[in-house]
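Ticket opened by: R.M.
Priority: normal
Category: complex prediction / small molecule

The reporter submitted a protein together with oxalic acid and asked that the result be attached to this ticket for the collaborator who will pick it up next week. Submitted input follows.
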Amino acid sequence: VDRIAEPYIICSWKADPRLYKQFPKPTAVFSLGAGVDHLVSAGLPSDLPVGRMVDPDLTMRMVEYVTFAVLYLHRGITQYVADQRERRWNPAAPPAASDVSVGIMGMGALGRPCAEVLRAIGYDVAGWVRTPKRDTSIPVFAGEQMLGAFLQRTDILVSLLPNTPETGGMIRRATFTMLRRSATLGGPFFVNAGRGQTVTEPDLVACLQEGVLKGAVLDVFAREPLPAESALWTMVNVLITPHAAADSDPKALSRQIMDSIARFERGEPIAHTVDFTRGY
Ligand code: NDP
Ligand code: OXD
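Result attached by the on-call engineer:
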């Protein structure tokens, strides 16, 4: 955490909430992360301008991660890794990308570019958001009432949802059981690179054990680091990464913050502000 030239601006990423008590009246806060749950839970005044990170470097890293995860699951790489250990030559014939539907929960700064790259590869992509969208050619479902229709067409579910009061624990057994169970992939898959708190983790574990889900690639967890006793660690159908999907180049992030501060000091509105009433 840095205090920058003017004493009224704080840049923080998961700062100790005591910091905000130490400097209780900043003019603005600029977060070094894309997710802002750490700021929402810090109890900042709701009228305080808070800018979050939306940066091409961070976005592209997330695009890389989600594309990797979808290809890893679709192309059955888990099985090849196991086969290699046993010196087993066992080619499989995965379906074409166009026969696989990918559903992205959260079509914001990160979700949209992921959807576009996946569509360029050939996947049948759709998104799910809070408020209806008209500015994209990718089919986007909105709100609780369209969630069922979105899930029923999805083979690989990708979550890039923020952690908010509405999304907490919302991805649960009922979510996984609604996913498409077509013969194409032999069962649905789940990728989580948003926030672990959006998932009811015991349901996720049970669904992976029972075959409701065929497999998962997980970057984020309810508790991080993922506790050693978590059943997820030893599941052969789960690939775990340690909240590393989109760790950005500190130089790129610093440049963004410096630009934002310069604009703010010229009296321009802060880009990518946090809406405390929505929680993201
Ligand atoms: P944005 O705020 O740009 O997008 C959030 C998306 O989630 C929006 O499309 C929004 O809908 C949707 N959403 C929010 N609440 C709901 C809800 N209740 N129901 C349906 N949809 C909802 O965020 P970003 O794309 O920049 O980042 C997303 C998250 O990714 C971050 O909050 C962070 O938690 C996580 N992240 C993880 C990283 C990692 O390394 N694993 C790195 C960076 C971020 P609408 O469009 O209608 O507003
Ligand atoms: C972020 C993250 O929100 O790294 O930026 O998770």
